[in-house]
Design brief:
261 residues; mainly beta; Coagulation Factor XIII, Chain A, domain 1; five-stranded mixed sheet; three-stranded antiparallel sheet; 2 helices; 6% helix; 19% strand
Length: 261
């Protein structure tokens, strides 16, 4: 019976708790420190500041048409280079004679993208609101300054009266008459009182091609200055123009000066 005490040594297995040092595995909690890296990712919120760029789309373009070019060409259809520019931005063109050159106007649609009108003669002797799509006036009488409207065919050849008031439209019957008297002389390639498309542009460039001069131009108006509407010698004549789109909106006015030496 004495051997039974040896069975009490089985108590030594109670040391198995020494296996509990596996607590060192709780250091895997250090892995949880990796979330501390994620806050640095939140710095990408600075990218959300890009919505400030959305403020730029407020650049609204006015709906009315825009005059893209207003200039002069020689009798051979090549451009005349301005001899100077006034403080208000008005370009000055010099010519040796008061005739034998063309005045050219180009335009494009505005922010409303409405096509520019093409008509250069639309007149009613009792309706000053009836106007062509090209409204142009001169500060000095052209030719003999005849008050007859659009007297540009034989045998009744006449000039155009001067207009020195504002080009506010619509205006008086006198203004409507003067506008039609000059604008009717701006014709398309077939001689009709209309504007021109690109395929019948009136400006000849050094490469031998006819085309528009202004950026974005969709319509061109070309008026030849001949004897009946010759400019006065030794004087400056200011031309002021506006164009209208098919919705009835008028462009801002634009001017140039032709100086006859």
């Amino acid at each position: 019976m004495t051997p039974s005490p040896t069975n009490t040594r089985t108590l030594t297995p109670s040391r198995s708790p020494t296996v509990t040092p596996t607590w060192t595995q709780t250091r895997t909690a250090t892995v949880t420190r990796t979330p501390s890296l994620t806050p640095t990712v939140t710095h990408t919120r600075t990218v959300t500041r890009t919505p400030t760029v959305t403020a730029t789309p407020t650049n609204t373009v006015p709906p009315e048409p825009v005059i893209t070019f207003f200039g002069v060409t020689r009798s051979d259809d090549q451009l005349v280079i301005p001899s100077g520019v006034l403080p208000d931005g008005t370009e000055v063109f010099e010519r040796p004679s008061g005739k034998g050159f063309s005045i050219v106007v180009e335009a494009r649609p505005g922010g409303a993208n409405t096509p520019v009108g093409m008509t250069t003669f639309r007149w009613d002797p009792a309706r000053p609101d009836i106007l062509p799509d090209l409204a142009i006036v001169a500060s000095r009488s052209l030719g003999n300054g005849s008050p007859a409207v659009c007297d540009e065919t034989p045998p009744a050849l006449g000039g155009v009266p001067a207009w020195n008031g504002l080009l506010d439209l619509p205006g008086s019957q006198e203004l409507a008459d003067i506008i039609n008297d000059l604008s009717c002389r701006f014709k398309d390639g077939s001689g009709q009182p209309r504007g021109r498309n690109a395929n019948e542009a009136c400006i000849l460039f050094p490469d031998g091609q006819y085309r528009f001069a202004g950026v974005g131009t969709t319509v061109q108006f070309c008026g030849f200055v001949d004897e009946p509407i010759a400019l006065q010698p030794g004087a400056e004549t200011r031309f002021t123009v506006r164009v209208r789109d098919e919705a009835g909106r008028w462009s801002a006015p634009r001017s140039l000066i032709v100086r006859i030496r």
